[in-house]
Amino acid sequence: MNDYILEMNNITKEFPGVKALSDVSFKVEKGEIHCLIGENGAGKSTLMKVLSGVYPYGTYKGDIVFEGEVQQFNEINDSVRAGIGIIYQELALFPDLTVYENIFAGNEIKKGPFVDWNETVVQATRMLKKVKLNVTPETLIKDLGVGKQQLVEIAKALSKDVKLLILDEPTAALNENDSENLLDLLKELKSQGISCIMISHKLKEVISIADKATVLRDGKTICTLDAQKGEITESIIIKNMVGREIEDIYPKRPDKKIGETVLKLTDWSAYDTQLGRKVAKNINLEVKKGEIVGIAGLMGSGRTELALSIFGNPKNYKLAGELEVHGEKKNFKHTSDAIKAGIAYVTEDRKGDGLFLIQDIKINVSAAHMKGISKKGILNLNEEVKVGTEYKKSLNIKASSLEQVVGKLSGGNQQKVSLGKWLFTGPRILILDEPTRGIDVGAKFEIYTIMNELIKEGLSIIMISSELGEIMGMSDRIYVMAEGAVKGELAIEETTQETIMELATQ
Amino acid sequence: MNLFTEAKSIVKLNIRDYGMYIALIVIMLTFTIMTDGLFISSRNISNLLDSAGYIAVLAVGMTLVIVIRHIDLSVGFVAGFLGAVAAIFMTQLGFSIWITIPVILLFGILIGCFNGFLIAQLGIPAFVATLAGMLIFRGALLNVTEDTGTIIINNDQFNAIGNGFIPSLMLVNGLHLLSLLVGVAAIILYIYSEISTRKNKMTYGFDVMSSGIFLIKLLLVSLVIAYITWILAGYNGFSWTMVIMLLVVVIYHFLTTKTVLGRNIYAVGSNPEAAHLSGINVKKITYIVFGSMGMLAALSGLLFTSRLQSATTTAGTLFELDAIAAAYVGGVSSAGGVGRVTGAVIGAVVMACLSSGMNLLGTGISYQYMIRGGVLAAAVIFDVMTRRQRA
After folding, report:
1. ipTM of the complex, rounded to two decimals
2. Which segment of the chain is annotated as a signal peptide (chain B) (predicted)?
């Protein structure tokens, strides 16, 4: 019975300062569909990167045994050659090339030194039949929907004689029909002896398809569940996903004074014209004065998109519904309008779109509110230094001087600069997107303390976070989002990790 | 900390900013020695600065364009075309220069804003949009000069812009008095502004450099201004081109370092997404920067046309590349967000020094191009190395 196609034994992978995987063991039998489950940051993607050779042999500890042989993959091509095919969430296809060119890209069928296009088309047609995709091989990728593109990816993997197929959240961007087709195809491939690892957040899918399911949490294997033993049920999976102990690092806020509604969304929707789908669907949401509202959900559930659609809509979504700020209907044309209305948005990706990394601390702090350091368009550079010094002190930003370039600061200090920049705009409503991602525990505590002080001053905070502990430790009320919609609103008293996870994995 | 170690640490911290000045001084000294002092003669320096004028004003605008991560290839022929239009205004339509100059500058702004529209509004890559502009204005220049060929301008007022000097009032020991006065005024203004900045900083309780170093800095810069003034006053004094160039630098330096607009430009260049999320209107900034570039291209066209006292069919050829080279020698970074307008002018002067010095030495034109290319590459390598050190 112990006929494993893949055994990953005692895998440990460390990044500077973080242990992403510790002693993980993971086994896949021949011809089974094995789901890999876990919260964001649990280590699923890292584990798959170790397997596929993205992190080459030697940068991790432990063994990979594939088809009975210990493997040392130095690059992705090695794992491909061994028969492992991986399909990422973001598809790696060339949109302007045809289906057949894509299927054999990097693996061209040759006749002498030349590509044999006729044979390529014949083979491509065969592969398309295998994945039950009914299009001509000459179709351009960009003319296909996401669901069909995914099938092309699978066809591409099959063309390389794949024995183990890895899919990273394959149905995240698909509608129900396409999802079902895909799952049916996986079952079909299974019957042909192809094993499959699927990372998924949708528990219903997992339950319907998985033979086995392994739960990861904080870089460790928690358990492997077996469908035949009736272990793959929603309650068992969720119990194992969230079993983490919540450390008590959340400062107490004894006197809550919750006031009138300051922000209200009614049937709020946002349509992304580039993606061609709704990123926020009919959202009703309310934020009161002096309140921390947590927005929970998994990555890609539309939380950041919702925040951006409120904050002046920089991505030019098509908006519908109503936004009220302090009882007034608003229609922001630009982020500057939202700032004027007293909203601030501390982005999730501080390096990407939050900070000016090549500029120094004081320039970053004043960047969103230059009126505060200027008169009639002329800067008062000394005032800027004064403001910078104040925030450096009050937020405890650790840097040698105000002239220090922000790119050289640690994550926690960068986050404080980012926070300082937005506090200087004098906001009434502060949206924090993953406020403590990638920063150490000490800085986290400092940021929580600052949040509590702001609340005491009568601000309102919307906190988007993937960390359940943070959501439950800091929020007064919680909205859970999945697939662009609010799946539930929870009062903090009735919230458990399980209830959040149930709503988030719908 | 004694004076020497303080000076050393200041130079070390600001090596990127001072590097260009050091390079300029080294180049000038080298040529002076190689030409037995001919290079540093009043007449040569005066000619050299005049010949740098029309590239320097382009380089100032180009620096800002590169700071916001774009490029403008159209400026050369825009300058050429608008120069020709100016010539037509004055010779065929009989407009005075008081009408011609503002109208031409306005045309420049409109052309620049059109580039801004293509780039900011329609999202066309700046390289392509302005390449199209380059072809269009090359054609336009040929078109307006087709019937007449070279247009000779007989307007003395206009020709003085590129060839004339400010009045001398009287000669003192063979030196032009007004130019001397301008130099003295510049020194006084410089010292006053430095002292008031220092005082202001002290009232805020900030660190300032020690008074010894401060005095040395004042003395050094004053000496340099005095020396340049003395050299120029010995020939014909300050030319109108130099005055215009200086005005452009002073205004743009103020705009970029002391105003909200300037700060917004650098913010957009450093990180456009973050700038947008900080409430900065990225499109508006793009329009303004390209509009200013267009205006400076028009100014460059006026300077060049006036210098030749005529509009030719090939005016403006390769100006854009000279301006881009000057901007890069002056320390602008193509990654965006870094670069000073003062640097751009120094860059233009460095390139002019190279041409002038090598001409005096009789270096063949083929070697001149190679050496100028080498200097450009060296400047960018220096920039990359010092940045890596800092990051």
Report:
1. 0.86
2. none
